[in-house]
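PROTEIN DATA CARD
Card holder: Isoprenyl transferase
Chain length: 236
Origin: Novosphingobium jiangmenense
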Amino acid sequence: MTAVPASTGGAAPYGARHVAIIMDGNGRWAKKRFMPRAFGHKRGVDTVRDIARAARDMGLEALTLYAFSSENWKRPADEIADLMGLLRAFIRNDLAELVSNNTRLKIIGDYQVLAPDIVDLIEDAMARTAGNTGTTLAIALNYGSQQEIARAAAKAAAKGEITPEAIEAELDTACLPPLDLLIRTSGEIRLSNFLLWQAAYAEMWFTEVLWPDFTAAHLREALEQFGARERRFGGR
Ligand code: FPP
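Structure generated from the sequence above:
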């Protein structure tokens, strides 16, 4: 791997403003160690923390992480409870750092249906970081891209026009820069109902690395390869 600077001093690293990640492979990581899936998710949160810090240090404008999909409700109740517990703990324990390092927290997805105490934590965290001007950490919770597009189309229609621009303005991601790079870990090559609209011209980067093993060096490698790609957006 080519040496890549740890920080680009606040500029968009390799021309990327917005990176999104499908964090996959926590369960397999735990299984390889004969540990329960919850252990893999717990290590997955450590990676969330590391990668959020790396994104900030590299000067990314936005990092969007797929933490809980609208389809994840199909998982066993104890695993859902573990994930919700980790989310609670993450917001409680990491909010002070997010506030102090100028990170803005944003949630995409229909988070209002989560447990009331989580909704309160989320809304408090978003309010307390709303004025921050550094990296936006967007966490997708109870997120499904088809549902998001349908909601946005309904809102656009209610305002009188259904055009790509009008729909885009109503997406949960409307406050984020255009998506440049979509990463998925763990060797799966699919989008799983994540940012389908936003990925129209995004570059994709897939790695076999399981999420708990994903490091800032992997993020830099992905960004470096992104920087070497020619993006034509349908033109020549
Ligand atoms: C995929 O691994 C991962 C998830 C479904 C959830 C991702 C959640 C976290 C990293 C922790 C919570 C996040 C925050 C922001 C607090 P998998 O269980 O599908 O793994 P497998 O495919 O190997 O079974």
